[in-house]
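Here is a typical protein record:
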Amino acid sequence: MRKKSVREIDTAVVESAIGYTFSDKNLLTSALTHRSFLNEHKAVEHNERLEFLGDAVLQLVSTQELFNRYPDESEGDLSLSRSRLVRTDFLANAAKDLGLHEHLRASAGQTQEMQKGVVPSLLANTTEAVIGAIYRDGGLGSATAFILEKVLTDIPGFLAATPAQDAKTALQELVQQQQQITPTYTTLATNGPDNERTFTVGVQIGDTVIGKGEGHSKQEAEQRAAQQALDNYTTDAE
């Protein structure tokens, strides 16, 4: 089956929306081309590499902003705040606000799912790809300006609007986002008679125990272990 010709992107409209003009328009076209589009059309590049780059730039910029804005917060609190800032739903909403969904090139099936709101990750990834494209085209200063002016426009407001999570949920989101794995919990010890039993639980990332907690139930011990892990968490904990 012969592939259709490439659907052109109105780069001027997109540039006006994002507040940045590209020297290399091909970077913007790549950022707005999902891998699935190549199955139905002629195209050279898709946006996964730019998404990878943009995610790293977004992490750096959000980390720097939180570090400067909240000098009294611990490393664990800063890590948790950062994970709340770069959540998929926030990035997907940013893509919608900028109208990126109207220009994203994807397969017919993916486009239909996106229009139904079923795949917010598709839009979130597009936001990251655009960040990566801006970084490649204009450097860190341009990417930082875009992130703060168009994506993370109200950091205190975003954090206030995001409900605090229990420690296990917060740790899981943080670790999955940064290391693409899920923490595991192991009962290390059980002490005392049945009516006064206490449990000691450890939480691991891979083979490394990053937190321990005690409680009168396994659930309580797991929450305390997760909280200790959040307090001690570093991005190189794996």
